[in-house]
Design goal:
Elements: E1 6-7, E2 11-15, H1 21-27, H2 31-34, H3 47-56, E3 65-71, E4 77-87, E5 92-99, H4 108-122, E6 128-134, H5 138-146, E7 150-160, E8 163-173
Parallel strand pairs: 5-6
Antiparallel strand pairs: 1-2, 2-3, 3-4, 4-5, 6-8, 7-8
Helix pairs in contact: 1-3
Length: 177
């Protein structure tokens, strides 16, 4: 298996599995988590969680992966993070992450990002990582900038839930980290 489980001082980044069904459902039915997502509606039933898990469990090689972020001290699941649109020929991918609101502002996602950026650079041989962040998601923008991502421009406004969802593109040059 190419996508391995990762470990930091305080976290396990465990490959997503069918055991995460209830957690994934809880995260993606939470209004605070979903307020910045523009690509999917909040789940209305557990089948939504099953579909997400099945997507990430497709056989390798694949262009995407998701880890569940687990706190070492007590085994509590905090959120998820991973990659999408991995283009091996261009050496780039997109990053995505979410954290259950109870754990916002405690440094967990920053610790997880450090681990997955290193994995992308060293194992995936990625030169660039892109992050598409909703304009008003200040915490996510600060997280990306803290890890060396730089603003590259604005994408065309997406229409989602009847509203415009303007997003900024940030890029990390992995060779400069």
């Amino acid at each position: 298996m190419f996508f391995k489980e990762l470990e930091t001082d305080g976290l396990f980044l465990r490959n997503i599995s069918s055991e995460d069904r209830e957690f994934i459902f809880a995260v993606f039915t939470n209004d605070k988590v979903n307020q910045y997502l523009f690509d999917t509606e909040p789940f209305t039933d557990i089948q939504g969680a099953d579909e997400i898990i099945d997507f990430y469990l497709q056989a390798e090689p694949r262009e995407w992966h998701r880890w569940v972020i687990v706190r070492k001290s007590d085994g509590v699941k905090l959120g998820t993070c991973g990659f999408h649109c991995w283009d091996r020929s261009k050496g780039c991918c997109d990053v995505g992450y979410d954290l259950y609101p109870d754990f916002w502002g405690r440094g967990y996602m920053s610790e997880a990002m450090q681990a997955i950026i290193a994995f992308a650079r060293d194992d995936m041989k990625v030169n660039y990582i892109n992050a598409c962040i909703y304009n008003d998601n200040d915490n996510s923008i600060r997280l990306a900038e803290k890890h060396g991502f730089t603003y590259k421009g604005q994408i065309k406004d997406e229409i989602f839930r009847g509203e415009r969802y303007p997003h900024k593109i940030f890029t990390l040059d992995c060779n400069a980290v």
